[in-house]
Write a structure and sequence with these properties.
This protein has helices spanning about 60-70, 80-85, 85-95, 105-125, 130-135, 140-145, 160-165, 170-180, 200-210, 225-240, 255-265, 280-290, 305-315, 330-345, 360-375, 415-425, 430-435; strands spanning about 5-15, 35-40, 45-50, 185-190, 215-220, 245, 270-275, 295-300, 320, 380-385, 400, 400-405. The chain is α/β, with parallel strands linked by helices. Strands 4, 5, 6, 7, 8, 9, 10, 11 and 12 form a nine-stranded mixed β-sheet that branches. A three-stranded antiparallel β-sheet has the order 1-2-3. Helix 9 links the parallel strand 4 and strand 5. Helix 9 (about 200-210) runs parallel beside helix 10 and helix 13 runs parallel beside helix 14 (about 330-345). The longest helix is centred in the N-terminal third of the chain and has 21 residues, at about 105-125. The structure holds the ligand C[C@H](O)[C@@H](O)CC(=O)C(=O)O and magnesium ion. It holds the Pfam family MR_MLE_N.
Amino acid sequence: MTDIIISLTVEDIRFPTSLEKDGSDAMNKAPDYSCPYVSISTQSGISGNGITFTVGRGNNIVCEAIKLLSHLVVGQDFNSIVKDFGTFWRTLTSEDQIRWLGPEKGVMHLAVAAITNAIWDMWAKRESKPLWKLLVDLEPEQLVSTIDFRYITDSLTKEEAISILTEMKSGKAGREEEMKLAGYPAYTTSCAWLGYSDDKIERLCKEAQAQGFTRFKMKVGSDLEDDKRRAKILRQTMGPDNLLMVDANQKWEVQEAIDWMRELVHFNITWIEEPTSPDDVLGHAEIAKALKPLGIGVATGEQCQNRVMFKQFLKAGAMQFCQIDSCRLGGVSENIAVILLAKKYGVPVCPHAGGVGLCEYVQHLSIFDYICVSGSLEKRMIEYTDHLHEHFETPCKIRDGCYIAPEVPGYSIDMKQDSRAAFCWPDGHVWRDLIQKGLYKE
Ligand SMILES: C[C@H](O)[C@@H](O)CC(=O)C(=O)O
Ligand SMILES: [Mg+2]
């Protein structure tokens, strides 16, 4: 039986997070967490929502890119899509003329992510399962059929992917129980955005510890003396045994990254994230080699364009922590491809979640990773940021510093109608007020 997709709409939703410097870092000094919000529905009345993430200006361009792709979605049979998701995914990334705008990178790939995330949400809702559970219950062959293996077969074939998933069937039920009871370990970035004062960092770190967090990330890269002072505050507040990660958001040259991190080494740092350009595989490899004797790994991925780039980072020893991004990669299927690649190369996956809705999303991916692919929590944790959860119908839940497995069907991204109306750019009343006060320009 067919179930034709009859509509795809997109809204430009933005939050004025830059007013409080929430989300600020060395490269993005004043981000306004934003998302194109896609809604898709079928003739039988099933619907799904999806987002991708931007930091404000340009969100409208991604909305336009989504509209440009919509003719490839509307009119398609939803049941046929989920039967052969990989083929459908390729139609979105390989449209004869639009492909020139990527391929599989930048604005067009963000658009693919929003659309396919919405379709996965719709699929999970139809099965009355949270997305992670849909993934866990799919047979290896069907799960693998959602992936486009083009350009990665030299490193991971369909057959290898199926055998990884088949081997990991053993112990799945126990791991699923564990995720429901104890959850997946998290770290918080929310104490130490670059624009926060020293007092605020100390206060937020204490509050986060009281909530059960033992792992923290701090933004670095603008001024070395500032970084040392802030790292000292954090270390003193969190104590010597808790984990500290730092994130430079692409600020440095390769040698500069190595030198800067040598200056911070005595703060006992687990990883340096995005030390340099996200495209510089060999540069990352050089940094990783230099920092290995200091016990510091390199983490990257939030701006890693696609599975092909991840393949190179993983093969070159250029990332010790693989930071998949639910909205930068082309949705769930491409994230699964990278999770499988990471397993093959023995690199732990620690998803990026600094942005609106990303915590809601990546919890599903990591829980699936643990149950079906890695089977391990060693060196693995999901980022948590404490912003904007109140706008979602089913926000992620953190207990004792861990994400608790979601129970509600879908991909946890339904945004409240009131929030969408208030924060719609530029006509939502929140934006109208801010524009009128002269704080923003249309
Ligand atoms: C602009 C975003 O807030 C970015 O700083 C997030 C990020 O790098 C992270 O969460 O990691
Ligand atoms: Mg980062």
